[in-house]
Every structure is written in structure tokens, then in C-alpha cells.
Structure to design on (496 residues):
């Protein structure tokens, strides 16, 4: 008779045996880990020693070369302590000294910009204030690192990010709210905002908008401009100085060429109302063709276009271009949708330039061939016009120079500047060729004027060190075909 049996449970001996095996595995794992850590530590010590020897040997080159300094510091941050820079390389002293100079510049400009300064403006002032005998170059990255060192002293210095990787540096105590930062970002394009612009772009209620504006005015970060007839403009000093002040320090004009420059500080004017007036000595604007100077009584001044200039803009465009623009386009010009500026003589608009910056993929199909990288940025010149009585005075050249120097300096991400012109507009063709532009494409039936189609040219000038390899390849193909065409004809003639 079969007897029923029951399964026996796990005994104590089996449990102990399993624990012993696990302990052996753990001990072996710890042994291997210790060996690996020791090996890694030895390799790291060797690398750090070699790195210190290299830094000591080339310390002067590292301090002089800003790009080398940045990459070298990023690498060393992973393998060395903070004391490494001060004791071995001396770069720590470089940044501490730069931090002190940053503080000095910010304090000296607080009464002008309310305690906000762009990193580009700060860098320009630092380079100007440093001794000419010093060889170290200063980059924006150096300034950011220096400001980070200042932040350990408290909340007196903060970095406020803008679009495109740019920063504002706040040098006054107190924190800006998220709403304050969004308004500053909105003002980056034109240097100012309006109540209507904020409500439209940010979708805010009027009460919220007024609260932010009043706070910025109270803190001295915004100035009120009551000159426009339709609505007040609220200018951010640090941003509009970045856009307009380069007119003074640009390569095309020097401080000696200024006839006047004044800007009423909010400290000396009730309600933070500011007057903006930038005047350039007419003698500094020479005629590139016949070396004549513009002789004016009231002076010639370069200003950005605003709502009050709308009738003059329309009249100048209608005089200069066969193409008729809609009223909505003119309104966009004065609302800040484009980069628009011009020269004024006795408050009369004598000339204008209108441009826009977008990614190349946002332009028309025929223009996207300008860059092989569809995410690259391009600046398009929509209009360049000079009144007939002011032509052949070098004004157009000065407008273009301001664009190609100051505007591009503030927009280093731009790869190409381009425009369109009629194939029979020989004056424009000669002008742009003389100033470094080349014909990139012929556009068939591009213009429709009075019911008749006309061909156009696309002129392009690659900037900021960019070389479009696709265009270079096409040029090489054309060149080689031109070279080898006679050879092929000769071979064909011999074979026949």
C-alpha cells in the first residue's frame, strides 16, 4: 500500500550554504571594484599631473588665448579642484580681477541703464577700460564666469537670459519677477515696448501689463517716451543703448564725428521720461563717388524709424520703387516687425534701410538655396532708398556699412545677407557688387510691374566666417566645365 508523502521544507543547512555563496560573490565583487577604483585613481593622478605640467608650461598662452582658456578650463573642471587654477595656472586670478572690473563698470553705468547692462555692452566697456599693454582677450564666456564668482557675495549680481543665448546682467539688489523678465525679452528687438504690444504679444490683461510697467519704471529699468503721438513707449536703457550707442563707436564713425549726443537720465527727469537724439557730424559722411560732403545746418542723424515717420516712409518708397507696398507692410515697418533705420536732415527723412532676420527655411523657396543648412539664419534687405536730392552723397553706403558692422556684430549667428534687384537696375547692381555682394541666382519673371514680368537677381554676401560648401561646389563645377570645354572640343576635333 502506497503511503502518502509530504514535501519537506528547506532546511537550515541549505539556507546557510546559499548565504555563504552570496557572501563569496560579494567579497569578490568588492575586490574587483577596489582594484578598478585604484587603477582609475592612479590613471587620474597621472593625467592630472601631466595636465598641471602642461598648464604651468603654457600658462601665458592659455591666459592670452580666450578660446583655448575656455576649453582648457572646462576640461580641468572635471579632474582638478578649484585651487588648481589659482595655484597652478593663475587663471583664477584672471577671473577674480575681471570680476572686480565688471563691478566697476556696472556701478559706473547704473545711473544710465538702471542696473541692467547687456553682456556685449559690458564687454565693449571692459575692453576699452583695460590697459592697452595687456594681451588677454575677453570673451562673453569669460564675463559669465566672472559674474558667477561675484554671485557668491550675494544677490547684487544676476544673469538674466534673453533669446539666442544672450544675457542681461543685473547689478542692483533685488530679484526681477518672471513677468519682468518676459517684458525685457520682448523689448530686446526694438529697445522699447508699449502697453498694446505687451498685451498683444504676451496675451496679458491690461491690469497685469500696467503693474509690470509701473514696477520697471519705479526701479529705473524703464524710461517713458512721450514723444510718439499715439501711445507712450517704454524704453529699456540697457537695450536701446546696445542698439543705438554702437553708432558712436562703430568703425564708420568715431567720437570726434559726433555733433551731439544726449539722453536725459531718469534721475534728472520727472517720471523717467527720456529724450532720444543721436546726431552724427555730416562731415564724417563722405561721398564714396565724388568725395562731396553733405552740408547741412541742422545736422544729419541716424535714427530707427517709428510711427511718426510713417508718411515719410511711404513717400520715399513710392518715389524709389516701382513696386507698390500695402499699408499693412508700412505699419509693420514702424511697429518693429523689421529692422528699419534711416538718416534724417532737419527732421526730414532722407534715406532708409529695412531688413529682417529669419531662418533660411522661412524664406521663399528660391532663396533657401543660399544656405545648405536649412536651420541657418539669413538677413534679408527688403529696401534701401535715398531721396533724389540726397543721392550720390555716400548715404546709401553708410547705411549699408552700419548694417554690415553694427547690426551683424549684434547678430553673429547670421550666415548670409541677401537681397533682390531688377536685372536692369544697373545702379543697384554696381553698388552692391562694389560693396562685396555677388550675384547668386537669376530669378526669371520675378517682378510683376504694371502687368509686365521682369527678371531679377539674388545678391548674396556670406558673413561671420561662413562658407556655403554647396555654393562653392556649384561654382567649382561651372569653373571646371568652363576650363575643360575647349579640351573636349579639341579631343573631339582630333578624333574626327
Amino acid at each position: 500500500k502506497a503511503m502518502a508523502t509530504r514535501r519537506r521544507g528547506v532546511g537550515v543547512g541549505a539556507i546557510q550554504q546559499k548565504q555563504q555563496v552570496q557572501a563569496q560573490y560579494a567579497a569578490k565583487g568588492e575586490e574587483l571594484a577596489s582594484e578598478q577604483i585604484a587603477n582609475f585613481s592612479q590613471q587620474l593622478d597621472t593625467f592630472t599631473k601631466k595636465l598641471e605640467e602642461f598648464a604651468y608650461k603654457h600658462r601665458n598662452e592659455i591666459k592670452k588665448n580666450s578660446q583655448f582658456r575656455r576649453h582648457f578650463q572646462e576640461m580641468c573642471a572635471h579632474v582638478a579642484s578649484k585651487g588648481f587654477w589659482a595655484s597652478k595656472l593663475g587663471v583664477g586670478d584672471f577671473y577674480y580681477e575681471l570680476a572686480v572690473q565688471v563691478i566697476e563698470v556696472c556701478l559706473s553705468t547704473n545711473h544710465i541703464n538702471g542696473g541692467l547692462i547687456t553682456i556685449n555692452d559690458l564687454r565693449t566697456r571692459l575692453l576699452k577700460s583695460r590697459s592697452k599693454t595687456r594681451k588677454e582677450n575677453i570673451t562673453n564666456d569669460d564675463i559669465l564666469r566672472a559674474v558667477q564668482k561675484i554671485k557668491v557675495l550675494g544677490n547684487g549680481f544676476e544673469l538674466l537670459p534673453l533669446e539666442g543665448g544672450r544675457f542681461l546682467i543685473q547689478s542692483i539688489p533685488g530679484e526681477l519677477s518672471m513677468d519682468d523678465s518676459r517684458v525685457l525679452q520682448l523689448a530686446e528687438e526694438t529697445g522699447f515696448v508699449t502697453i498694446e504690444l505687451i498685451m498683444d504679444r504676451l496675451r496679458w490683461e491690461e491690469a497685469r501689463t500696467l503693474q509690470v510697467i509701473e514696477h520697471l519704471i519705479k526701479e529705473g529699468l524703464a524710461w517713458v517716451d512721450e514723444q510718439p503721438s499715439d501711445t507712450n513707449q517704454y524704453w529699456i536703457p540697457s537695450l536701446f543703448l546696445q542698439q543705438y550707442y554702437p553708432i558712436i563707436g562703430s568703425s564708420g564713425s568715431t567720437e570726434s564725428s559726433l555733433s551731439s549726443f544726449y539722453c536725459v537720465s531718469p534721475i534728472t527727469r520727472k517720471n523717467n521720461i527720456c529724450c532720444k537724439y543721436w546726431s552724427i557730424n555730416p562731415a564724417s559722411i563722405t561721398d564714396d563717388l565724388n568725395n562731396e560732403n553733405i552740408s547741412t545746418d541742422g545736422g544729419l542723424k541716424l535714427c530707427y524709424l517709428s510711427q511718426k515717420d510713417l508718411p515719410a516712409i511711404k513717400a520715399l518708397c513710392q518715389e524709389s520703387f516701382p513696386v507698390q507696398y500695402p499699408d499693412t507692410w508700412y505699419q509693420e515697418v514702424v511697429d518693429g516687425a523689421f529692422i528699419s533705420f534711416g538718416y534724417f536732415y532737419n527732421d526730414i527723412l532722407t534715406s532708409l534701410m529695412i531688413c529682417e532676420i529669419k531662418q533660411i527655411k522661412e524664406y521663399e523657396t528660391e532663396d533657401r538655396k543660399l544656405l545648405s543648412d536649412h536651420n541657418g539664419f539669413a538677413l534679408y534687405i527688403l529696401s534701401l532708398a535715398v531721396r533724389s536730392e540726397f543721392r550720390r552723397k555716400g548715404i546709401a553706403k553708410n547705411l549699408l556699412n552700419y548694417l554690415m558692422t553694427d547690426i551683424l556684430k549684434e547678430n553673429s549667428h547670421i550666415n548670409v545677407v541677401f537681397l533682390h534687384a531688377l536685372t536692369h537696375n544697373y545702379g543697384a547692381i554696381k553698388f552692391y557688387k562694389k560693396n562685396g555682394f555677388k550675384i547668386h541666382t537669376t530669378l526669371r519673371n520675378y517682378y510683376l510691374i504694371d502687368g509686365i514680368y521682369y527678371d531679377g537677381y539674388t545678391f548674396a554676401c556670406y558673413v561671420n566666417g561662413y562658407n556655403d560648401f554647396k555654393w562653392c561646389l556649384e561654382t567649382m563645377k561651372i569653373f571646371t566645365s568652363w576650363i575643360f570645354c575647349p579640351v573636349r572640343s579639341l579631343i573631339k576635333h582630333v578624333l574626327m
In short: The longest strand covers residues 438-449. DSSP finds 17 helices and 16 strands in the chain. Confidence is low (pLDDT under 50) at residues 4-9, 246-298, 490-495.
